[in-house]
Each structure stands twice: as C-alpha cells, then as structure tokens.
Design brief:
- This protein is α+β, with helices and mostly antiparallel strands.
- The protein has 2 domains: 75 residues, no CATH class; 152 residues, no CATH class.
- It is built from 10 helices and 4 strands.
- The protein has a 4-stranded antiparallel β-sheet with strand order 3-2-1-4, with helices on one face.
- Helix 2 packs antiparallel against helix 3, helix 5 packs antiparallel against helix 6 and helix 6 packs antiparallel against helix 9.
- The longest helix is centred in the first third of the chain and has 21 residues.
- The relative contact order is 0.11.
C-alpha cells in the first residue's frame, strides 16, 4: 500500500508545474507529503480500514523524495535572481514610511524591524508572531532578549539581541533533518558610523522603549543621552512583552 503513496509523490512532481521553473520545489513537494500523512489515516478510518503505520509511510515517502532530488538535483538548485536592498534603498524606504504612515507607533516598529534585519540578516518569522501565534506568548523576541549599553562615543549605543526562534528557508528537508540548526543565536550590534546613525537598531528600539515608558530611571531623550551608567535596563514587569506586534 505504501508503494502507491510514494509513487503518487513522484507523479505529483512530474505533473505539477512550478511557479518559476519547470518543476515544483522540494519544500512544495514536502507539503504534499505532510498532507498525505494527515489524510491517509483519516480516510482509512472513515472506511473502517486499518491505516498503514506511520513508521512505514514516512520512510517510503522519504526514499521517494530522496530519489527525486538525486535525479532532478539541478532543477531543485536553480538560482533565483533576487532584488537586493542596500543602504540607499533602505533610507528611501524609511523616508517613504515617514511620509505615508500616519501612526507613529506602527511606523517606528516597521523601521526598527528593517534596521535589525539589515544588521543581522534575520527573517521576518524570527522577529514577531502572526495573529495565530501571538496568543502563545513564546518563541519571538521580547524585551528580555535585548541588552542595551552606551557606545564608544556620546549619543552612540550598542545592542545585543537573542533570537530564540530561528526562521530559515532550507529547501532540502532531508538535509535540514540531518544537519539541525542551532535553536538560538545572540548578535552583538555595534553603533554605526555617524553618517548612518538613523539606521542604528539600538537607537530605534531604545526610542520604542522610551515612548512606551519601559526604561529604568529614564523618561526623556535628555536623560537617555546623559545616562551615567554603562548598561540601560528595561523594567522587569515588561520583559515578557513582545517587542514588535
């Protein structure tokens, strides 16, 4: 019985056109496998038939997918031309956001996320939850994941951020299972040069914290710029709150 389903995966790959290329991607093919693993037991039980064991289905489907990948590796590994965003484009995007977005609380989060992504190359899925996952309260950056301190020059600030949920884009699912990625990563972000101070993630997130009243013993911009201690702390009661929402 399991032979039918792995042949189905091969049939799907050969007869389903991709969005950009001749064939679908490995991740799309894997979504078919996940769907099969859900529907096969369900439909068998509806017909009062004992479904094939998961321990049998998964290896057979994985073997079929490895065979497909080995035979059509060039199709899976085709290079996709991507539009890169450099400093000029990011500055233009920030200017556009400043002019068009009428909600400053919303706008400052957009810009802070862009600056953080520019420095760390993190993906959006590592920054904040969607509506379905927001209620879970875990897995995305909250205020306790940040550490702020004064930089080497007045008005400059350094920041470290810990990503507890790493979102990647590995197309080869078998490779991802064989070489699991780290669960967390901590990045230290030094203050940029003065010409690019508007792109400083530390300043952007400190501004958000200052506006929300989250900083310890700091309530104004002057107090922030003249703060005598090395480390700038966030109030303990808000450490569990989402930074971006």
């Amino acid at each position: 019985m399991s032979l039918i389903f792995d042949r189905f995966l091969i049939l799907v790959f050969k007869n389903t056109p991709g969005r950009r290329f001749k064939f679908i991607t490995y991740s799309t093919l894997n979504s078919y496998r996940i769907a099969l693993l859900f529907w096969i037991p369900r439909k068998h039980l509806e017909q009062k038939i004992v479904p094939p064991a998961y321990e049998v289905l998964w290896p057979k489907m994985a073997e079929a997918m490895r065979s497909i990948h080995a035979r059509y590796a060039e199709e899976f590994d085709q290079h996709v031309e991507m539009v890169m965003i450099g400093l000029p484009e990011l500055m233009q995007l920030i200017d556009f956001e400043t002019i068009r977005n009428v909600c400053i609380e919303n706008s400052e989060q957009h810009v802070a996320a862009w600056c953080l992504a520019r420095f760390t190359a993190c993906r959006p899925g590592a920054l904040g939850p969607d509506a379905a996952k927001r209620a879970l309260g875990t897995g995305f950056i909250v205020w306790r994941d940040f550490e702020f301190r004064r930089g080497d020059e007045p008005g400059m600030f350094d920041m470290s951020v810990t990503f507890r949920y790493l979102k990647t884009n590995t197309l080869n699912q078998e490779k991802k299972l064989k070489y699991p990625r780290a669960t967390t990563v901590k990045c230290l972000l030094k203050a940029p040069v003065a010409a690019h101070i508007s792109l400083s993630p530390a300043l952007r997130f400190l501004t958000i914290a200052l506006r929300r009243g989250y900083l310890v013993d700091i309530t104004t911009v002057d107090e922030l710029l003249n703060y005598p201690l090395q480390y700038i702390k966030v109030n303990r009661p808000v450490l569990h709150l989402f930074t971006l929402y």
